[in-house]
Amino acid sequence: MIRVRYRGSNELSPGLHATAERDGRRTTVYLLDGMTAVQRRSALRRLRLTARMGHCPRLPAAQLAFALFTDRIRTGIGRAGRMLRLHPAGSTVPIMVLSGGAIAFLLFSTVSIHVIRPGPQASRARAPRRWPRPARSRPARGRRARRPARAVLAPRVTQGIPAVPGLKGSWPILAAWAADPTPGS
After folding, report:
1. pLDDT grade, residue 109 (50/70/90)?
2. Is residue 130 assigned to a domain?
């Protein structure tokens, strides 16, 4: 297993940008802090060459690539953590996202959602009408053109109410009142 760590220029031998040390089954590659990408690549190439000659522990390419990948992730997370600690604006957006997620969780956890799927017969059959619709009337012509046409109620509403001869076309409640003007007697 290979891991990558960083050291200052006073901790490495003069003229070296990288060194490798073996500690049991683990190999640690120490790189100089603040190297550019080209210097880093060159130092790692020199380390692999010296490892082939037997001057330092072996550095297999796959293990070294994995170690460099994990180092890149670790340093990226470290930089993000330093940014969050140093500047308050760096922590605003992540805190807003976490707060919004917590609020959404609390709101959605109080509601149970049930999905009701209609059967194959429901899509073909039309739903029955529950309320009577007013009948269409002819458009008025002549002098009566200004007055709006009156809607005629469907017969279902007036069932059970006797017809009153003098109240043609009036509301069923008025017709019921006219049929028995003295309720309770």
Report:
1. confident
2. no
